[in-house]
Write a structure and sequence with these properties.
The structure holds 2 protein chains of 2 kinds.
Chain A (H helix, E strand, L loop, with lengths): L3 E14 L3 H10 L2 E15 L4 E5 L6 H8 L7 E6 L9 H4 L2 E5 L11 H11 L4 H15 L14 H13 L5 E5 L7 H18 L2 E5 L3 H7 L2 E6 L2 E7 H8 L2 E8 L13 E6 L2 E7 L3 H11 L2 E7 L3 H14 L13
Chain B lengths: L1 H18 L2 H29 L3 E2 L2 E2 H18 L4 H11 L3 H5 L4 H30 L9 H27 L8 H14 L15 H7 L7 H7 L5 H36 L2
Antiparallel strand pairs in B: 1-2
Classes of the chains: A alpha/beta, B mainly alpha.
Chain lengths: 339, 271
């Protein structure tokens, strides 16, 4: 039984088109023009217990709208969803006790008080037994390494520490499903990495199911084996993260360091030269030709060092978006679903 | 019952949060007394100028007592920031918090406001006590039944004030801004609640008293003060309290109905 099942979820917003200028504003008082914006169209997927799934897409692709439907904040225009055996937008208490949604840009804690006081409030909101509450809180503050900070007012915490407190508050009632919207936004790399590590540990210890959206590939690479890619409201990819590399990483990056002070002049014949600095160069080579190209180069020149990489995942994802973008709406993207 | 206990506990925890601002409460109390001085001087002049002992049934002393008592009424019934806070939560999306968690926005805000009032009253008890002690001669202490009726009228005034302002805030589901609306309403209630002067002064205008009595606003300031002054007694007092209770219930129902409609609107369009 999947934890999340989305069946053809669609959401169309009616957006009021405001006319320009004062005259337009006055005219708007009497007759209004609306434009239909399809934020999400026919999205289907299922997520099993214990999975961590990354939800990727450019701004305005429909990630947050989908999350909001799954969390029961908005009704879909079409389609259905089952989350933890409930229909989310009925917002039953039994459902709301079993999941949490954390939005990176939203603050839930009392600003001028220590986080511990806000945790107490959560205890009452979720009616948690005292003993269970203290045990969970102890474990979480230990996991996130913020035991000493819970008595300090939230205002005085760093952004990273605050995010950790937000996550602790969200996990106090031991949700089975954690929906994360940009959990690491604005954080520095160190804070980002520790938060990711905590989430991974929490997932493996507790088996909590996580669905997260993020702009940072670091988040996705660190946490998710499976990704969903959405663009222009449509799901264009659902499969393993490595599948994106296979499908869209047609090229490899070959970094070379030659003997001497200059690179050979005719490198262009081997592939697309992306950078050239003194004796080092970087060439983009088709994946199938890597072996042949390497043999030819090593045959002709003295090479001191060589390394072969996949291009950064960001670039590949951007390519997925582009390919999704050129599809005319209504036609499925061929060959994108691995099932 | 379990739900009531939950919100009482939330009230207790919110009390800690509100007490963080006690110094602020203490200082603003003194600033509140300043306009009172002007009002007192004004009424002094009116009584001296008119050369009457009584105006609209109020002696000079009773008028001062009334003006002090409406301060107490408003301490219970005024809800600064409530409607604009709700409207802001709707606009900025903080409303999500109440939809995601097993908690109800209105009951939560009521507990929170209750905590705010308790913290406020506790921190400002001393300056108020000093003020009333200074003017002790204008009061005749009422009997225990009046005290009870007075306390009831204040609690109901708190509920009427809360749910009325909550309705205005919930209108934020459809309006972008409620600040200016609230500003107009505040000026209006300052007048029709009897905070400015006893409503009997309007007796000379036919129908004015009847209209104001038919509205819930006089319960926000005028009615509790009149109860304490024992100017409402017997059947009039009981009927007044019953109607006050009816208003409180009606406003609770209206605000809940508006909130449900608003949520449907929000979930369908915004989010």
């Amino acid at each position: 039984m999947p934890i999340i099942e989305a069946n053809g979820l669609s959401k169309t917003y009616r957006v009021y088109q405001k006319k320009e200028g004062l005259l337009g504003a006055l005219r708007g008082l009497f007759s209004r023009e609306y434009k239909e914006v399809k934020a999400v169209e026919d999205v289907r997927f299922a997520i099993e217990a214990g999975e961590i799934v990354g939800f990727l897409g450019p701004n305005g692709a429909g990630k947050t709208t989908t999350l909001k439907m799954l969390a029961g904040l908005i009704y879909p225009t079409n389609g259905t969803a089952q989350v933890l055996d409930h229909i989310p937008w009925q917002r039953e208490d039994a459902f709301r006790r079993r999941f949490a949604l954390v939005m990176g840009q939203k603050n839930q804690l009392w600003w001028d008080l220590p986080a511990a006081d806000s945790f107490q409030l959560h205890r009452e909101i979720y009616s948690l037994p005292t003993e269970q509450f203290h045990r969970t809180l102890g474990e979480l503050t230990e996991l996130f390494g913020v035991k000493e900070l819970t008595r300090q007012s939230v205002r005085e915490l760093s952004l990273g520490e605050r995010m950790k407190m937000e996550l602790i508050a969200a996990l106090l009632h031991q949700p089975q499903l954690l929906l994360l919207d940009e959990p690491t936004i604005g954080l520095d790399v160190v804070a980002q990495v520790t938060i990711l590590k905590c989430l991974r540990d929490y997932n493996s210890n507790r088996g909590v199911t996580i669905l997260l959206t993020s702009h940072y590939m670091r988040d996705v690479e660190a946490l998710c084996k499976r990704v969903l890619v959405i663009t222009q409201g449509r799901l264009v990819y659902d499969g393993p993260l490595t599948g994106i590399t296979d499908r869209f990483g047609r090229e490899k990056l070959v970094k070379l360091q030659f003997d001497g002070s200059e690179c050979p002049a005719n490198l262009e014949t081997f592939g697309d030269v992306t950078s050239r600095q003194g004796p080092t160069a970087e060439i983009k080579v088709d994946r199938q030709r890597v072996a042949a190209v390497m043999a030819a180069i090593l045959d002709r020149y003295t090479v001191l060092d060589v390394s072969i990489h996949d291009p950064p995942l960001e670039q590949m994802i951007a390519k997925v978006f582009e390919q999704g973008g050129v599809q005319s709406p209504g036609t499925p993207v061929p060959g994108l679903s691995p099932q | 019952m379990g739900a009531i206990r939950k919100y009482l506990k939330i009230l207790r925890i919110s009390l800690v949060e509100r007490l963080a601002y006690r110094a602020d409460f203490f200082l603003t109390t003194f600033l509140r007394f300043l306009p009172l001085v002007t009002t007192f001087l004004l009424w002094e002049a009116i009584y001296t100028g008119s050369e009457k002992d009584e105006i609209a049934g109020f002696t000079r002393d009773k008028m001062i007592a009334y003006l002090l008592l409406v301060q107490i009424s408003r301490m219970f019934s005024s809800m600064p920031g409530l409607s604009t806070g709700i409207a802001r939560d709707i606009r900025d999306g903080n409303l999500k918090k109440y939809l995601l968690q097993p908690i109800d926005l209105l009951w939560y805000l009521l507990s929170y406001r209750g905590a705010h009032k308790i913290a406020y009253i506790a921190t400002t008890a001393l300056p108020y006590a000093l003020l009333f002690f200074w003017f002790r001669d204008v009061f005749d202490l009422p009997g225990p039944w009046t005290w009870l009726a007075y306390f009831l009228s204040l609690v109901l005034a708190f509920l009427i004030g809360f749910f009325f302002e909550a309705c205005i805030g919930i209108a934020g589901f459809w309006l972008l801004e409620v600040t200016s609306l609230m500003y107009i309403i505040n000026i209006f209630t300052f007048f029709v609640s009897g905070q400015m002067f006893p409503l009997e002064l309007l007796d000379q205008y036919p129908g004015a008293m009847e209209v104001l009595n038919a509205l819930p606003f006089h319960y926000l300031a005028y009615f509790p003060a009149m109860v304490f002054l024992e100017k409402k007694q017997g059947d009039e007092l009981i009927l007044g309290l019953v109607i006050e209770l009816a208003w409180a219930i009606a406003l609770i129902l209206v605000s809940r109905w508006m909130y449900r409609l608003g949520l449907r609107h929000y979930s369908a369009y915004g989010g």
